[in-house]
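Lecture 7 notes: from sequence to structure.

We start with a single chain of 316 residues. Read the sequence below before looking at the structure.
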Amino acid sequence: MRTIALIAALTAAVAIPVGLSLEQGAKESTILPENYEALNGDEKLNRLWQDGIIASEYKAGLPTLKSVSPFKLAFHMLSKKMERPMDEAEASYDKPIHKHGVVAKVAFVATQDSPYTGLFEGASQGLLRVSVTGDPASMTFAPGIALKFFRDGMVSQNVSALYKLSGQGENHNFFANELSNVIPLEFDIASIFSSLVFKRVAKYPTQISVDGFADYDEHGDQVFEPRQPRQLYFSPVEEMRFDETAHDFRQDFMDIPSGTTLYRVYASEEKGLDTSEIDWERRKKALFIGTIETRSRFIASEYGDRRLFFKHNRML
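Now the structure, written as tokens:
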């Protein structure tokens, strides 16, 4: 009965109007010029990297990882996460989850036989942010990544990936499991709450679309017969393994040199709604389409934690 009552309370908590926000009144500021979207992809990347990430790099030690506040998550203006096309968040934006992480320049290096188009043919101008949902001392270790790839003269494309909402227990090796933009629905209390929150703004709360990746390449050239997968799997390369015991994952990444291959990327066009467990039959049929490789060191910064913005695209 306690579980039923708690679920009911959580459901009531997330029934708050989507437009309500607790973060109001902060002075707006930006490092981006008015013609930012018209710039080439490399210019946009360098502006964010130099004037945002490097300029605000933490010099006096890393900020403490924050626990997830269910109240703050429930009241968060999630519609912005789905609708704001910009690479920079508003000055008032305050992440309720994944508050602290590290960022690096990356490239997606496509295989020659990949059938997918647009950015899936190769994307040399990208940013990768790695983070955990909340302080592992107060919950499980729940790794996640957010990728942003820039295109000339148009908005970037973004995708985020997790292992599971429930995380991976006490294992602090960030590369212990594959991550994906499509994850199972789970039925523990914390996962139910998170799914209910995101259900307010997305039909499929545990899925993020990559449809926009296929329509234009990184030079802004349109693809007239686009083809894209539905699901991506980010499979850590064997060389990438960290300590499983409790420690700060950010330091692991800050020790990774530029030019390192982090993930092999696999893709599937199959549609599925997984419950509780990953569909390994679908995974086994996924096609290897490329790798994610670093093009800089990883940096922990105030801009990366507060202002760098990764849009979530609704799965239809």
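The helical segments are 2-13, 41-53, 70-75, 79-83, 189-199, 249-254, 280-284, 302-306. Keep this in mind for problem set 3.
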